[in-house]
């Protein structure tokens, strides 16, 4: 297994991996998430790659096994908060058939290395309440809850 920065040539394979996680979200909250559309996901990932986002791919025996999409976010101090620089993980997905083979851990390790090289003070991510298996993984990676978002539906 290897983890590296994704290239434009990887976008089709990344789009395929993204379909699975998008499907999970669409099934968990169909009122918020759209059903996966491979071309739309592919175009989104290509745009992210072109804009300089951190896009990592994990390969196992030449096949795409997982990916991680992140960005570095720097916020200046304001009257309420200290200045901060964090690496924010927007997506992490592993092919369901390949889960529990350290692919997610390797992707996170590569993201940590990037964060350390960029002198970030923390890695952050969010996860939907229905994705409890992801919560267990994030906790095993040393993440702890930071903020709770409440929702009250009106319609």
Tell me how many strands there are.
5
Assembly form of the protein: single chain
- Structural class, from helix and strand content? alpha+beta
> What is the level-2 CATH architecture name?
3-Layer(aba) Sandwich
Largest sheet: 5 strands, mixed
Low-confidence stretches: none
CATH topology: Aminopeptidase
| Tally of structural domains | 1
Helix content: 25-40%
CATH class call: Alpha Beta
Domain N-acetyltransferase: 1-155
Protein name: GNAT family N-acetyltransferase
Pfam families: Acetyltransf_1
Keywords: Acyltransferase, Transferase
Task: Please give a structural write-up.
The structure is a single chain. This protein is of the alpha+beta class and 155 residues long. It has one domain (2-140): 3-Layer(aba) Sandwich (Aminopeptidase). The protein is 35% helix and 25% strand. The protein contains four helices and five strands; from the N terminus they run βααβββαβα. The protein has a five-stranded mixed β-sheet with strand order 1-2-3-4-5, sandwiched between helices. Strand 3 (63-75) and strand 4 (84-94) form a beta hairpin. Helix 1 (11-28) crosses helix 2 (38-50). The radius of gyration is 16 Å and the shape is globular. The protein starts with a strand and ends in a 15-residue tail after the last helix. The mean pLDDT is 95.
């Amino acid at each position: 297994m290897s983890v590296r920065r994704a290239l434009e040539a990887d976008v089709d394979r990344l789009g395929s991996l993204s379909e699975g996680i998008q499907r999970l979200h669409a099934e968990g909250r169909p009122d918020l998430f759209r059903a996966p559309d491979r071309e739309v996901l592919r175009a989104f990932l290509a745009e992210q790659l072109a804009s300089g986002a951190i896009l990592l791919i994990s390969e196992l025996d030449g096949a795409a096994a997982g990916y991680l999409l992140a960005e570095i976010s720097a916020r200046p101090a304001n009257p309420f908060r200290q200045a901060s620089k964090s690496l924010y993980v927007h997506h992490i997905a592993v092919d369901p058939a390949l889960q529990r083979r350290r692919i997610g851990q390797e992707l996170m390790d590569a993201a940590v290395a990037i964060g350390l090289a960029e002198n970030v003070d923390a890695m952050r991510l969010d996860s939907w309440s229905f994705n409890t298996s992801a919560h267990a993984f994030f906790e095993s990676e040393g993440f702890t809850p930071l903020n709770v978002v409440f929702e009250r539906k009106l319609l």
